[in-house]
Amino acid sequence: MTISEDGGLPMVTDVARGQVENVQTIINRMQTGRIVIPDYQRDAEQWDDRKESLFIESILNNLTIPAFFFAENESEGSIEVVDGQQRLTTILKYAADEFKISDDDDVVYLSPQSVHYKGFYYKDLQRKLQNVFNDYPLTIIYLPKRLELSTKLEIFRRINEGGTPLTAQDIRLSYYSSSPSVNFVRLVGLYSASAAATRMLESAAKKDVTNPWDGRKQYNESWQSWWKDKAKAKGQTPSEMFLWYLIMLNRTQVGALVASQDALKHLSLSFRGTTEEVLDVYCAQLLWTDERGGPIVLPTYTSGLKEQFKGFALWMHAILNRGLAGISVDKYKQLALLIGACVELKVNPKDISDDVWDIFGSFVRTPRQAGDIIKDIGGYPEPKGRWSGQKGQRAQCQAAIQLVERAVERY
Question: Which of 54, 105, 198, 325 is the most exposed place for a label (fewest CB within 10 A)?
């Protein structure tokens, strides 16, 4: 094996830098738009009054809080918050007197200090405590400049592995949020009328993207009821389900995109064969087409995406209200593949017999057992995070088509 003369340079040759800036400085930069909080779904309403209050109490008592991660966008002259947006949002809200430190007796504060801030808005604090708040030093870690997109995504994921992490889908939808098509994918995932949902709808409206559930009240009610109060719903999982459905329907085009590095050159992404990267590639291609035009590689908001959503909504409603009532949200990906197969084969849910519904239920809950229907062609593959190969995700998508086709033909 030949070893390069550079000794094997690290992936990132520049280094991150750290510095300390006080709360007042960061607030000023946020208010002027110099510091930008990405449009994540997680960016608000993740913390309740208790968490917000205890966080502000930490600042007022000079207790240590985690560092923040920023990334400088040289072309736009802005600074993007990579990690810490919930904490920064809480700081900004408290400084603007949008909430008071909770006076709920169930919140355990530091004693006796809490008498000076419990139940207080920022404006009600003594001047000394206001100064402590404004002067509090925040540790900022600036990521290396001019990182390739794929490297940034990997850094984002690793930063957010601990605590209450941002999911890959959070990061993905934020990174490609300037795409109307990606915004549409995100809106499909809405399952409540929260303040965060309102912000997403407003952001999408600026790109002339409307709520896909408008005019489909019954379908939307079924969707919301299924995801409501489920821990799995956090981190943009509902929108990821729809994205897997799209990949199922458009697997041939996706396969062509990831077939070689040359095919991906225009997206500035590397592909190492994982299913997670396929999701990145899909969103990156949507953004590319929305911004650059050219041949439609994947259905976009103005060309086919809304039509593909109609089939998804129809089948979700039929599944939740007739066919597979009670199915767990944990099976969202398998359900997405089932729906994609049914839509591709133009199966009408009204024509499905009880026997076929039983097979579909088995397919979603225990796909390996349901795979006996196609055991003569190798059964149902288990991709284990890989896209290609006889047991990869693409092969699994094709097996789902064959399984649904045989089930409908036989029963």
Answer: 105
Which pair of tokens denotes residue 230?
A: 């489920």
Query: Whole-angstrom Cα distance, residue 351 to residue 348?
Result: 5
DSSP state of 140: E
Q: Residue 350: which H helix or E strand, with range?
A: none
Q: In which band, very low, low, confident or very high, does the pLDDT at 247 lie, cut at 50, 70 and 90?
A: very high
Here the tokens at position 201 are 């709808």
Burial of 207: CB neighbours in 10 Å, binned 0-12, 13-18, 19+: middle
Please tell me the distance from the alpha carbon of residue 158 to that of residue 141, in angstroms, as a whole number.
14
Task: Tell me how far the alpha carbon of residue 265 is from its chain's centroid.
Answer: 24
Quick one: which of 323, 334, 409 has its CA closest to 366? Answer: 334
Strand runs labelled E in 152-204: none
Alpha-carbon distance of 255 to 72, in angstroms, equals 34
Q: Pairing mode, if any, of strands 17-22 and 35-36?
A: unpaired
Amino acid identity, residue 38? P
Report the chain's C-alpha Rg in angstroms.
24
Query: What is the mean predicted confidence (pLDDT) over 316-344?
Result: 92
**Nearest-5° Cα angle at 197, 193 to 199:** 130
pLDDT at 43 over 50: no
Separation of CA 178 from chain center: 14
339 and 219 in contact (C-beta within 8 Å)? no
Q: Fill in the amino acid letter for 328.
A: S
What pTM value is reported for the model? 0.70
Q: Which of 142, 43, 41, 36 is nearest to 80 (CA)?
A: 36
Instruction: Spell out the residues 6+ positions from residue 328 whose beta carbon is closer than 8 angstroms to its own.
Output: none
Q: Give the pair of three-digit tokens for residue 409.
A: 């033909």
DSSP, collapsed to helix, strand or coil, labels residue 225 as helix
